[in-house]
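Spend some time on the protein that follows and explain the fold to me:
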Amino acid sequence: MEQASINTNRRHQMEARRAARRKKKKRQTIFLCLLLLIIILLMILMVFKMLDSNNIHEIDQIKTVKEAAYTEVPPENIVKEEEPPVPSSAPIPVSVIPGESIHSASGYLVRLRDQAVVMNKAGTEKIYPAPLTKIMTIIVAIENLSNLDENVMISDEIINTLYTQGAAMTGFVGGENLTVRDLLYGSMISSGAESCVGLAQRVSGSEDEFVNQMNQKADGLGMNNTHFVSCTGLPGDDNYSTCKDMAVLFEYCLRNDVFREIFTSDTYTTSVTPPHPNGIVLKNSVLSELTENNLTNGGVIEGGKESFTNSSGQCLASLSKIGEDEYILVTAKSDGNPKSEQYHISDAVSAYNLIN
């Protein structure tokens, strides 16, 4: 009995110890869980704190940038961007040629690509364009006569009147049928007055009406100091222009392919007609004289139209190509004459040679 009681007490003690261990383990588990929860909460708080700190920094940066955008930067602190390279099509400066380099009293030299003035010697002073007038005659005829093979008859009246006036002639005779092309080349290469009047009458019915068209064209091109009274350029006080105005006209004409072809031709043979069964061979003598004088800078003279009267002196409109650029030169009022030194030729060669 006593032994049983002892065994019972031992069992109770053991259960009590086991229960105490379970309680202790449970308390330890609860403590560890609480500790882990605290650690997790602390970590979450630290993460939020870091995020808030970063947001504040970003806001400060944005605010600084905005403030900088509205803050004037001192000029010395501005970083200048590199200027872009100049495109090849931009105007290239030209060296201005002094007017003293030519004999003629007036001269105007222009680069065609951008109308840069290379020389201006009394370019706006009044001149008498004489047969340079025929440049306007030719372009007005080209723009009004589309069929260059159309026939035009030169009358006896035209021939007789012009011979009486002492005008330069192509060599056609009264009653001869020529093409418009023949008359255009005759007007340019041989400076034939009968060719000019034949074109004028074909375009407008009369020379007077044609001259009105010439003056209208001059007004349209801004040739404000120019007035024509004839299509041939025969002397007359009211037939006047300037080298600058004639250069404006010349530049305009060279845009026309038909005009350019005629202007740069050295020879042309007119149509076969009964009076001229082999045609008339026209030779551009002024172009021959110009090309005989080689340019020392490697350029070439492509075309030329000369004129002379006692009131105009020697005049010349010429075209050259130097390097990749074309140039036009109009000179007037040189002291020479057809039997003297050809100053208008030497002037063109001298001026073109001075272009680099």
Observations:
- Residues 2-69 form the longest helix (68 residues).
- The chain has two domains: 1-62, 104-353.
- Strands lie at 106-111, 116-121, 151-154, 176-179, 267-269, 281-283, 300-309, 313-322, 325-334.
- The CA atoms of residues 51 and 57 lie 10 Å apart.
